[in-house]
Design brief:
Blueprint lengths: L21 H15 L3 H8 L3 H13 L6 E5 L5 H8 L3 E6 L2 H5 L7 E3 L12 E7 L9 H10 E12 L5 H22 L2 H9 L7 H11 L1 E8 L3 E8 L3
Parallel strand pairs: 1-2, 1-4, 2-3, 4-5
Antiparallel strand pairs: 5-7, 6-7
């Protein structure tokens, strides 16, 4: 570990070149997002050239739930998805592990400080769920998908958005250069450089799409579909009827 690695909250040391697991990952992720929360939205907009806003709008369209539906945004951060949910006339509830992110939230939706692997919600309590760019930050995905299936009602819908390298070889090469070299520079200028060295590397936590699809189906989701964007992908699914 580098001796100049930043010390985050709760004595957690961030090694930007390591990919921790288990409780170490949970604590590091929480502290990392507490640290970068104040300028998180600004850096996101610059890094994605504003495309993240378009991707969230596409996610809401594919979610396909009617006005009045109760939708939880998981790892809600500063509330970007919550605002999109409310624009569609739905009821948003945000959950996040990072108090720093919740403190910076710009939404009127109720926000809950919680680990989304163990949500303080009853079974089948909500109509749908969204999640933006957070799956790679979880300590495990199958258990998370099981938990989402527990709280989403039968025939409810999910729309999860996360980073994904382009499938075209040339575009993938350019994306790799930008994501692994330019993004840390932007993050260093505007926020915490080592955090933005770690975040691009964290995409390695995500399994290939066929494995993600199989995990969702094992958790009880059907009609699992994927839409690929330039640098991101969206997958949607329906909670199977009991």
């Amino acid at each position: 570990m580098s001796p100049d690695s930043p010390i985050l909250d709760e004595g957690v040391t961030l090694d930007p070149d390591a990919l921790p697991s288990g409780e170490q990952k949970r604590r590091q992720v929480r502290s990392l997002f507490d640290t970068i929360a104040p300028r998180y939205d600004l850096v996101n907009r610059i890094m994605s050239f504003g495309l993240d806003v378009r991707w969230r709008k596409a996610s809401m369209k594919q979610l396909g739930l009617p006005a009045g539906s109760v939708v939880i945004d998981l790892a809600c951060g500063t509330g970007d998805f919550c605002r999109e949910i409310e624009r569609k006339g739905m009821v948003a509830i945000g959950l996040d592990l990072s108090m720093g992110m919740l403190a910076e939230a710009r939404t009127d939706a109720p926000l809950v400080h919680a680990d989304i692997l163990q949500m303080p919600l009853a079974e089948t309590a909500v109509d749908g769920a969204t999640c933006g760019f957070a799956l790679r930050n979880l300590i495990e995905l199958p258990g998370f998908f099981d938990e989402v299936a527990r709280v989403v009602r039968p025939d409810g819908r999910i729309a999860f958005l996360d980073a994904s390298p382009p499938e075209n070889t040339l575009l993938r090469f350019g994306h790799s250069i930008y994501f692994n070299r330019v993004v840390p520079l932007i993050g260093g200028l505007l926020s915490e450089g080592r955090a933005y060295r770690y975040l691009p590397k964290s995409v390695a936590y995500l399994p290939p799409w066929p494995e993600l699809k199989a995990q969702l189906e094992a958790a009880g989701f059907v009609d699992v579909e994927r839409a690929v964007f330039s640098g991101a992908h969206l997958f949607t699914a329906t909670r199977a009827a009991h």
